[in-house]
Structure formats: C-alpha cells, structure tokens
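= Paired protein data =
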Amino acid sequence: MALDAECARMYEKARQAGQKTLRANAARHVNGYVPVLDDLVDTGGVLAIQRLGQREIPLRRVAGTSHVSRAHAFSADFMPLQPPNTEFANKWIRLCSAQMEEGLRDPIQVYEYMWRYYVTEGNKRVSLLKYMDAFSYQAEISRLIPEWDDCNADTERYFAFLEYAKHGLFSAIELSAPDKYIQLYHLEQRLLESAPPMTDFDKLLMRFEAACAAASCPVLPGDALLEHLRLYGLPLKMTIEELTARVVAMRPQLMLLNAPAEPKIIMAVQTAPKLAQLLSRPRNTHIVFAHDARASISRWRAAHEHGRRVLEEALGGKITTAVIPDLDAANAVRQLNEGAADAGLLFVTTPTFREQVLRFSLDHAECLTLTCARMQDHHKLDTYFGRYHEAMYLCGVAAGLSTRSRCVAYISSQPTCRRCTADINAFALGVRAVSDARILFITKDVEAHVLASCRTAMQKGRAQGADVVFTPVLDAFDLSGVPPHAFSALFTMDENGPARYIASPGWNWDKYYIKIVNSYLNGSLHALRGAGRENGVISFWWGMDEDIIGFDMADNQLDPSAAHLMRYLQDGLRTSRFLPFLGPVADADGRLMIAEQQNPRPLDVMQMDWLTAGIEEM
C-alpha cells in the first residue's frame, strides 16, 4: 500500500509537469501534446516497412506515439495528462509499482521514422520511464522508409543513412549531411582494428548521445561523434561523465562546424589596450616549438629553429623555450602531451598534423596553440603565416624584366586545398606588369624536394622556350648568391638547369617570433583570442610592412631603371601604398574576379582557388 501511495504521488508530479509543458507550449503557440506519427506521414508517403527486430533504444529518441487516440493523453515530453481517478492513471501507477518492485521487462513496440521512434505499444511505459529519467529500454522496431522527395533534403540524408546502415557500425546514427556517412564509414574501417570483438556500438552511441545532451552540444550528436572519431578514435571505455567532459572540451571545434564564422585575420602587430594590460594575469612564459621530423623539410625546420634561438637571445630572462624536434604522425599527440603540456604558448611549425594539434589544443585550452599554416577555417586552429604573395609579385616583376625569350617557368608541387594559388597569381601579375612573356605553371609529377622531378620540370620549361625559372631551392644546385634560408628562388636557366641567381622571397622568422611573443606577454594575444574563441579561427597574416616577409635580389642583375622600379615597388609594399591584386583581374576563363580599382579582402586572397588569365598549366 505504501508503494502504491508513493507511485500515486509520482503520477501527480508527472501530471503537473505535463500540464506545465502544455501551458508553456501554448504560450509559444506550439502544439503541447505528444506528436503523432500519422500527422507526420500518411500511408501514401511510405515506400516500405522494414522489420528490424528487438534492440535497446535511447528513450531520448522516442519522440511520439503512432496512435491518434493517445494524442491528448500525454504532453509533448510524454508526461501524463489524465486525471488521477481514471483507468489511465491507475494503469500508470500499477506500472510504476511493477518497475519499483522488479523492473519492467516486456519490450515496447515502435516505428522508427527518420531517426525517431513512435510508440505503437507501451506509451505508458515510455511515460513512466521518461519521468524516472531512464536511459534506454528494449523495443521491437519497425522502420518506415519514406518515399524519395527531390524537394526534401532530409530524405536525401536519410537514404544516405540507409546505405550506410547496410555495413556501418551504428544502426541509428543521424548526421547532418549525406557525405558525412561516407566519411564515417571510412573512419570506422580504419578504427575497427583497435576495437575489441563483440563491441556494442549502439550502446556506445547511446552513451555519447547522453553525454552530448549533458554538455549542451551545439551540433547533432552524430556529427559530434564523427569529429570525436576523427580526433580521438572510438571512446570505448569512457563513462558518460568522461564523455561529457570531452564534448565540453570539443565545443570550440563543434561550434565552428555548426556555424562557421568568418576568421579574424590579423594583418599587423596588435597592442593590447592599456586596461587589458593592467588587468591581465601573469603569463606562463614557457614557450615550446614543435617541428616536423621529415628530412625533406630540413631547411624549413632549420629556419624556424634559427628564429627560436634569436627569440631566446632577444628576450633574455623573460621566457624559456623548449623544442619537440621530431613530430611524426603516429606519435604526434603523445609527443605534444609530453613536451608541451606545461607550455603557455606552443608554436607548431608545420601544417602537417592538423588533427593531432587540434586535439592537443582542445585538451589544453590554457595553452595558446599557434600552427604555422595557411588558414584552414574548418579547423579550430589559430594560425600564423605571411603574405608571401607580396614577395612573389616582386619575383614576377623581376622575372618579366629578366627574360630575353619572353617565356618564364614557375615550378611547384600540385596545389591542393588552395595551397599557393595566390602566390602563382601574384607572380603572374608581376610578370604581366612589365612583360607580355608566357608564364608556364609546371606542376605535373613535381615533388618540390626531389631534385630529379625539379630538373625534369625545368627541361619541360626549357623545351617551351623559358629562360627564367622560379623553382624550389635544392642544395644540389650549388649556385652562389642564394640566401642560405631561401626555400625557392628565381634563376636564369640554360640547358643544364638554373644558371644564375636573380631573386628570392624569404621569411624573417626571428622577427616574427619576437613580435608575436611580445604580443603574448603584453596580453594582446589573449585579448584577440577572447574575442574569437567561440566564433572562428584567428589567423596572423603579417607581411612586408611588418618585415616578416623579405625579398632579396642579386646585385647588378637589372639595368638602373629596372632596379629603380623594383625598389619603388618594394617600398610600396612595405608601406602598404601598393597591393598586388589591384583590379581588374580576370581568371583563366576570362571572368572578372576582381573589379577595376578594387582590392580583394584578405580572406578572399587566402581562399583564392582560381588561376589568373595567361597562366599555362603543364
């Protein structure tokens, strides 16, 4: 009797909660009663019914009832609405007693429709279990497959899910876009090797969904799980509490996926407001540099390491620095955790390990992590790079002034992900400013750090008549005059390859690191990060005006008037009086991409994915 009385009190509390939901929805002019499947789809809109058998389902996904007769028996959140002296209330109370004494055992029966469940048998059990905040329950499931609708993006997503479900691990996962199911399937195949046999992936998904709910996840739980798999792998042994903390840590990246915001591009050194400096907390002055282990970029690594040493000498006792010298893909996360967990500022001098660095930065939010890379707005990674295209424009002008055959070659690895597109375009515009020379863009079979491929590319250019070449600098060239830290350079070319050094763009990493660390110490970086942490990436994109990008030219390569023009243009870039992409600029198909007397936004230059007119791809 005491148990029945307790269950009666629970019923009344549940009923009051349902009435509250009903009133709140009415105030918002929203249906306050439990959704009915028949209102969402009629028989003519169902292509097929598929019996899925029995399995445990998350009660969070039970969205409504299949019976219109139950439409006014429950509120929208499945709380009971009938008066306490009704047969309905008595049955609910008896179920409550059974659950308290020995637990409910009989499975409910549901239709699955578009990732949600609608109850055909067991509405009161669902109501009781939801009131008790139960996690999941056994259900006999029949899937309603909707007819294809060209005007409904949800059906396209759902049919992508059905195709995935034939072989995928998660039998009820919802993702926000059809292509994400392909990404998920390929990720699963790679991660399956680490999963123990007989893993219950549906229970894993239910745990993850519960964690997403507890963490107020800003995206679909399926999207969050996909990102987790990409960054961390399968969360096989994590509790809901641990998963909740993980989802909270991932929030900056998930926010970016949900509502991409325009990146904040920092074009010049910032000074923190006086008040911000006064209120700023003491900085962790331990600064770590992480370098790529690959031998093919040893020149790049050496340039950054030189910058670190100059930084340490310049700032004396204000900072300490350390180096992770050999990041590799298999161990990057462990290396970063071991080498930079105590850092206040981390510079990753390579763009190679985006997922691993993103994982570190999410797990160590107290450390400012900056990656040396062209901005990637789909990763919550703050980046630092330079307006390299400014120096490339000068190289193009020098090439146009130097060629006698009116044909120049530009050798590069195949551009990917907008890589270097602005650079070749700026080079071409520089050539065109002073010459009508042909511009050969040679990328086929080119590996920038492989001598043989660069020599083959130069032979192609030479066969087309090129007598000037812009190419990666390789030690085997053994030419005098080339700056020791140049990565690419402009040469005259003869039948044997590069013959005489003309000019090269360059990086002043020592100056970059001194300026950015000073900004970190005075609070400028924290002020910027606070403004953009949840809304988008921050990209430091300094150029010749900050003396970050350099330009070197050999003496006596040009006649006095041409040399004077080069100095004038270089001074214009340093003072920002001149910008390389001043319109009009058309693409290879003749479409006007930059209007006359207009300059593109910095983001448009960063994301440039078209080639300007006059470039011949080879």
User: Anything to note?
Assistant: Residues 130 and 344 are 45 Å apart (CA to CA). The longest strand covers residues 46-58.
